[in-house]
Amino acid sequence: MTEPHRFTSIINCLTRIARQIVRQTSSYSEGQIYVLPLLMSVLPGIDLNDFQKITVTLEFLDTILKLITCVDCSSAVHTRTDLTEIIREKISDFLSGSFLSPKVRRLVAGLIRALVKGNPIETLKYFLPKTCDSIESIMNHADTSGLLIDHKGDIELNWYLILFAEFLRARGDTLLIYKQMIMSVFHRCIYLIHKDSYEAVASAAKHLLKSLSHVYPMEYQLTVENLDEPFINFLPIRAWGQAVDFDHLQIQFHIPNIDEIDFACEFVETFIYLELRLLNEKCLKISNNERLRSLTFIHHIGIGCFRMVPHIDSEKLPNLISSVVSCDSKYQAQYSIYPKEPKFQENLRMRLLIDIGKLIGKSSMNE
After folding, report:
1. pLDDT of residue 129
2. In the chain, which ranges are E strands?
3. Is the pLDDT of residue 326 over 50?
4. What is the pLDDT of residues 105-135, one digit of tens each?
5. Are 165 and 203 contacting, i.e. CB atoms less than 8 angstroms apart?
6. In whole angstroms, how far apart are CA 142 and each of 32, 82, 137, 138?
7. Which of 17, 295, 294 is nearest to 38 (CA)?
């Protein structure tokens, strides 16, 4: 670890032979006993001062963890059981660094995404409250009025907002218990004018709405065996690195429930009308940066929620597209995936079409 060039070379080599290490084969059955020691030994490679070391370390962890099933087998084999806590503490310390470069941010965002997809309940429980508290603390102790109009932004706040957006990729039902916390962060940060900040907030809104209203796989484990079986019947390490027939995977999908739909509708109506009112009333009075912030937020809300909004069916918009195939709604297949139909004040597609049209007209006249 004290010789970075040697460390990066070794980790690169290990990454290339990861499958051979984790698989239990007749030609090489000892590889699996090195997996836990290797995972433990590379953790110091998460070093804020060395981008190359971080890159190869995260790539190695990503490769290994894609090939193995993380199950506590301590009752079957007498090995260490504190790996999860050590990794958790290391990641927590790492995430507290607020001066990460954009390249490292992208890598860490990928790591957080994997944690959220793999174990959303524990990941949110451990990381989301800390992230929200950090955001609230910065907003409380900084000159909030100055921060809202500061085009340079706050690098620490930007970092926590990026993390916040990644955590909101979690499964919708796991986010419900953090509803007040999530809404509080949006209320505090929605008007930040710094580009990186408002783009992170907008991305968070999009991820939240997609998590609450979309259908997607709940698990990403590539194994057909039941991991809850007694170890006498099946030991998960036997499946490490093995190929899987995708036709036999029993994939479980997330279907939005009533509480998730209500949360999504409440979020949309709370924030989108604030932005539309701002654009309608102060379009020509606010700066270009403020206007871009508002439009960016509206755009991301639209991406996240339009699956819940029906198509425009209005006499005001006849013959939208010239096509051999009729675009009338009566010819379109309508399949409801929701136990409760989303309720909005109006058709948001139509409202955005009208309001954005007015905005374009005002901007053209002003020029």
Report:
1. 93
2. 216-217, 253-254
3. yes
4. 777 777 788 788 878 998 899 899 999 999 9
5. yes
6. 50, 38, 8, 6
7. 17
